Hints:
By secondary structure, the protein is of the alpha/beta class. The protein has helices at 15-27, 47-59, 79-94, 129-132, 148-156, 170-177, 211-216; strands spanning 6-9, 39-43, 98-101, 119-122, 139-145, 163-167, 184-187.
Amino acid sequence: MGGKSPNIILPGANIAEAVAAGVTAVMSNTGQSCDAPTRMLVHRSQQAEALQVAKEAAEAIKIGDPRDEDTVMGPLVSKIQFDKVQKLIQAGIDEGATLVTGGTGRPVGVNRGWFTCPTVFGDVVNSMTISKEEIFGPVLAIQPYDSIEDAIAQANDTIYGLAAYIAGPVEDAIPVARKLRAGTVNLNYPDWDTSAPFGGYKQSGNGREYADWGIHDFCEVKGIVGYGEA
């Protein structure tokens, strides 16, 4: 599948809680989740606050041996993936995004292994590589929007469509959710629910997993035509 899932933080959301939870959702599993909310969209008037919250949340992440109980983020899966993530972080810097925290290289105090700095960019626009390409690493791109319609347009401006996230009052989130081109839309970071279908739109694949949707792909359908004819 694959994805570049948007996370729309509505103006009515609790910015501190919504942004911190969004950072955690990206950095868990070292960003190696196909449905990670790696594009965070915040209202332009709230971007400065969101960047500060994201910086503090990312810098508080404990990096280390995954076998240690207090470790939050371990290494990437391989050197190939490490090199790819480093290249894309550098692309974000080169293309003019604001590096809020993190960056290239290993975290301070780490001298071996495929560990990557939890990285947050601000002032991202959809034309940038870090907004378009799936990084599959601990990198969050925060991009401002000017209206809900602008947020929806930016969210849908991607070749992917696996998942989307919205934080804010449910009554405000539902109308937005209906306009997002994504297989799963998560409102206010719910728990994983295997009774809901999981799969993507566009280049995030076809078909669905879980519940009866997951069974349908293993079934063959027979059509019998001609009923009612003599």
